[in-house]
Write a structure and sequence with these properties.
Length: 458
């Protein structure tokens, strides 16, 4: 018999891992397991020690390294059995005919020849009680929405939790008319801490569940019962799974064709949703026919609407409407933003400079720099003499402060430049009115209003 107990000696690397907490009823049995690592278990004496609530530590039993010697405290003989498996590095304590006073935290520990315990486990709480705990909660579990087919089977559930002991709760189901339903499942109790939870499942036809039709689940336990009604889950308003963008007409078509071309773009994360979407157009509430575009991306669909520039300017609204197969109609509306911003009020300015390449150059590069105080869709075109406008090489807008800058490059021959031919750079944005001319700057060698910068190429 141990004459005294010494508390923990902390040594890094040596551990004793114990089994989980348990709640038992008087007269039941339970087995504790302790797994050792970090030291030579097969050559160590091992012990079990317990500490009841509010009381000091109690030495319970010990076992020699080869199990040839076993000793028990007087109150544990006949009910407790200590054993070990050196191949698994495990120590066991089999507890039979448990009593209320066996409620305690049980520790496994290594016993040394100096009559102290140097390595300890973290302890296992064992609770022995006759108390029965009613479920603290009963929840009804219903499927989201209702079945699309009246004959479809739906699964209803009922969750009871927070009760003790494990086999103390059973379930009952009744339909909306109060009639008992027997064809349901009850799953085994699951332990959570010191109490248990269980689930019951009932399958019903979709036609029998919805509207005023519901079911009741009752958790029955010693001394009472709790009932929960399982009703259809309200379906929230369906959100769109598609995104819709309606783009303003581009300056290019407004400038060249006097035509407003609007684009409605639909994107989504589901190919079927995008494919089944239908795009329609209205101008001032009157339906207009658009043109669906071929897309290589299955998650994108687009349609173009072309109308005269003057019709676009006078329209009160242009609407793009997207009808989803399984969702609400989506609408985007815009109107022309003209007026109040004149091209002549300094909101759009340009300058032209001339660059030539190499000492024996035959070609020159005219560069037109356009700055815009509002909007970013700027179209730049070039004209030689009295000829037609043509495109140069125009870059994307670059924002600097409150301005957007656009650069366009146009190649000309040295001969045309030396002849004094006039070249024009014209700039327009999407707010251009149909009766308004674009900003235009002209230059020629004879005008002398360009900056000529030679650039050597090695």
């Amino acid at each position: 018999l141990r004459m005294g107990l010494a508390w923990i000696k902390c040594v890094a690397g040596q551990t004793l891992t114990q089994s989980e907490a348990a709640v038992k009823k008087p007269g039941e049995s339970h087995r504790l397991t302790c797994t050792a690592s970090g030291f030579t278990f097969s050559s160590s004496w091992m012990s079990w020690i317990r500490q009841p609530p509010g009381k000091p530590l109690e030495w319970t039993c010990e076992i020699k390294d080869d199990s040839s010697s076993i000793d028990y405290g007087s109150s544990f003989k006949g009910r407790f059995t200590i054993s070990r498996d050196n191949n698994k590095n495990q120590l066991y304590l089999q507890m039979n005919n448990l009593k209320d006073e066996d409620t305690a935290v049980y520790y496994c520990a290594r016993y040394t020849h100096c009559d102290y315990f140097d390595y300890w486990g973290k302890g296992t709480q064992v609770t022995v009680t006759t108390a029965q705990t009613a479920p603290t909660s009963v929840f009804g579990l219903s499927p989201c929405g209702s079945g699309g087919d009246a004959a479809e089977l739906l699964s209803l559930g009922c969750l009871a939790s927070g009760y003790f002991p494990a086999d103390s709760v059973t379930f009952k189901w009744t339909d909306a008319g109060g009639n008992s339903v027997s064809d349901f499942l009850q799953y085994p109790s699951v332990k959570s801490g010191a109490t248990y939870s269980a689930v019951s499942q009932l399958q019903v036809k979709a036609a029998d569940f919805g509207g005023e039709k519901s079911y009741k689940c009752t958790a029955v336990y010693p001394g009472g019962q709790k009932t929960e009604e399982v009703k259809p889950t309200p379906v929230p308003p369906q959100k769109s799974c598609l995104n819709v963008i309606l783009k303003n007409p581009r300056a290019k078509e407004l400038f060249n064709e006097k035509e407003a071309v609007l684009e409605c773009v639909v994107t989504g994360e589901n190919e079927a949703d995008v494919h089944n979407a239908t795009i329609t157009w209205k101008v001032n509430s009157a339906e207009k026919k658009g043109t669906d575009q071929k897309e290589s991306n299955p998650l994108r669909k687009s349609s173009l609407l072309s109308i005269r520039a003057d019709e676009w300017e006078s329209a009160k609204s242009v609407e793009c409407s997207v009808m989803q197969k399984n969702g609400p109609r989506l609408r985007k509306t815009i109107k022309a933003k003209t007026g109040g911003k004149s091209l002549q009020d300094g909101s759009l300015n340009s300058s032209i400079n001339c660059f030539h390449l190499g000492p024996n150059y035959k070609w020159l590069q005219l560069v037109c720099l356009v700055n815009v105080s509002f909007g970013s869709d700027v179209y730049v075109a070039w004209k030689k003499g009295e000829g037609s406008y043509e495109e140069g090489l125009t870059g994307e807008p670059v924002k600097t402060g409150s301005f957007n800058f656009v650069t366009s490059i146009f190649s000309i021959s040295r001969d045309d430049w030396d002849k004094g031919i006039n070249f024009s750079c014209a700039a327009a944005h999407s707010f251009l009115k149909s009766n308004e001319s674009p900003i235009s700057k002209s230059t020629s060698k004879s005008h002398g209003n360009s900056f000529e910068c030679p650039t050597e190429i090695s």
